[in-house]
Amino acid sequence: MTYIQEKQINDNPAFNKEDWASAYKNVEKELTNEPLNISKGGNIGELNGTLFRNGPGILERGGQWVHHPFDGDGMITAIRFENGKPSLTNKFVQTKGFLEEKKINKFIYRGVFGTQKSGGILNNALDLKFKNIANTHVIKLGNEVLALWEAAGPHALDPNNLDTIGLTTLGGVLKSNEAFSAHPKSDFNSNMSSELLVTFGIQTGPKSTIRLMEFSNAGENAGELIIDRKDTFNGFAFLHDFAITTNWAIFLQNAIDFNPLPFVMGQKGAAQCLKSNPNKKAKFFIIPRESGVFKGQPPIIIDAPDGFVFHHVNAYEKDSKIILDSIFYDDFPSVGPDENFRDIDFDNYPEGNLKRSIIDLKGGTSKLETLSSQCCEFATVNPKLLGLKASYSWMACTDKKIGNAPLQAIKKINLITKEEISWSAAPSGFVSEPIMVPSQSSNKEDEGYLFILLWNGSRRGSDLVILDAKDLKELAIYELPISIPHGLHGSWVNN
Length: 495
Ligand code: CO
Prior knowledge:
mainly beta; Methylamine Dehydrogenase, Chain H; 35 strands; globular; 6-stranded antiparallel sheet; 5-stranded antiparallel sheet
């Protein structure tokens, strides 16, 4: 495949929707330690570690499609590098619901994003059970790899062969099936441990409780919970992600309402019952970290800018302010009950833009600046700088500069000068979240590698692309022996 490096200068679609939609199909096989063939570039000798990725791997059963890919059962891909030579292992997470549905090849649970059981509204009404689909993120905590889905507990996997060990309480930390966010943060800058894993769980209702947990993730007590606090806020809270600084955990509560009636009546999935409320104000919940200097103090609540956020990029402290970069949408993007997710009109959906909130903790106010108005998602910084001021961010973005479209390019932005460079896989390539792995041999912030799982629409298969983080030059492209649908999050673990 030839990648087009030049930037598109017009707004005509530079993609074929069939190429894009062709990624949405079931993953057909599970492989173990399959060596990968390089199709371009050369192996990178200094790579010793594993790239873990999660995403939906089952999108159809017995002729019925999920209503939204976020309802698909989780499938983990692990690409292990030994002195630069990669091999691939992939397995479905053997959740209870996956095993039950696999046996009869039929969906027997409703999906949060609108997948219905067969039999129409009557068969779905009053059925509020859902399955833990373990499809959102995959991380290593202590000696275990965890497949995460935010509304329920994590599934532990064997790090070597990805066999499912089962739902875990993390040694009694979690109650049975207690919610555990799909967006943990690794903090390499704490004085409590050389690596902390900071995460949260939310119990929501008329009041919402955030449980903030910090685990050691290095040394002898790796995997141990060392900090635990709970704070309760008024109102329903929908929190997918958060951000950390040295002393704070920052949550953005979007101004949305949850009207459960259509869900209870069997007409909609639970997430389709979320709706922006223009009369409501979004809020920042800013919780002191118990590993920081404000430990023991109550949270600070500050009005937040309008818009909807799934993902934050990074945050840092500056005097008495918090600077928070996030991907903002004008509204909550939802696939309605009568729409087909494989044939959506991108122009009708809100696009993500990189914006910066400047939160004044003393004045109790916040303001918003736009860093880039090109549609983007899945932005990251050098992981060593999470919680500190970073100069660079990498993200997935559209090939065109204006308007919504599938994510086909990777962009590096200088967060100080706003200079940008990009690499594009248009017209037939479609990118996913770039994972930045710092170089072992350099301390420069932008020296390292970007790992991207790419849907190669020309050959209707998946590629692994490794770019140089500094200049976005292609270093290596591997053709993968499995086809992986457009996925969600992942992480890198050094050997
Ligand atoms: Co996410």
